[in-house]
Amino acid sequence: MEYTIQKLAHIAGISTRTLRYYDQIELLKPARTNSTGYRIYGQSEIDRLQQILFYRELGVNLDRIKQIITSPTFDSEHALREHRQKLLEKREQLNQLIANVDRTLALTKGSIPMTNKEKFEGFKQTMIDENESKYGQEIRAKYSDERIDASNQKIKALTESQFAEIKQLDVTIHEVLAQAFATGDPSGELAQHVADLHRQWLSYYWSTYSKEAHAGVAQMYVDDERFTSYYDEKQQGHAAFLRDAIHIYTGTKIE
Known about the structure:
CATH architecture of the largest domain: Orthogonal Bundle
Strand order of the largest sheet: 1-3-2
Distance between the termini: 45 Å
Number of domains: 3
Radius of gyration: 22 Å
Number of strands: 3
CATH topology of the largest domain: Globin-like
Helix content: over 70%
Strand content: under 5%
Shape: globular
């Protein structure tokens, strides 16, 4: 069965503009264009769109999706099984979040007791779950499941005071980054200070530190728009400046 761009957009729940953009970037080309100039999509394109939308739901950016589904080794059945597993993990994360919210609501109503330790443990788990949901696939592909699992375990082991220190360090990094950015010199004293603060911040999460991994994270802040937007929220260019400062600090540049 074939679909016009309007019909495919309707059944997929996306806009025709999105489909045109996918065509433009050669992520999803139509099967053909009919005599009136309309894009026509067949079953092969529909199956590919399904894969694209699955990956988008998991937070994978379009460039990475294109790399995956155009790879000669791409296996659609294997991909579907991976999607299913990721969705099950996402459901489990949501169930944990819902359970924590329900328990907190019950505490608010006075129907059950909840210790401060339980609140804190739930908050740490929520942070882990949110990070996994937003960035899990990319960082696990980059740093391995073992390393990310070890990092999550280290977060779970944090004391309340250590967790407070991390939060304050994050605030300090942004403040010093703004001051360093104003100097325009990523090799300057302020910029190198913020790079060192960033190393300290990472050390709360990583079981082991390496300059190469630190430089790799800094590069990801520029390559991944989600990280870029976090550091560029108040001033565009902060993420790239931080990347440059860290590359100088570590003496390691990721090509």
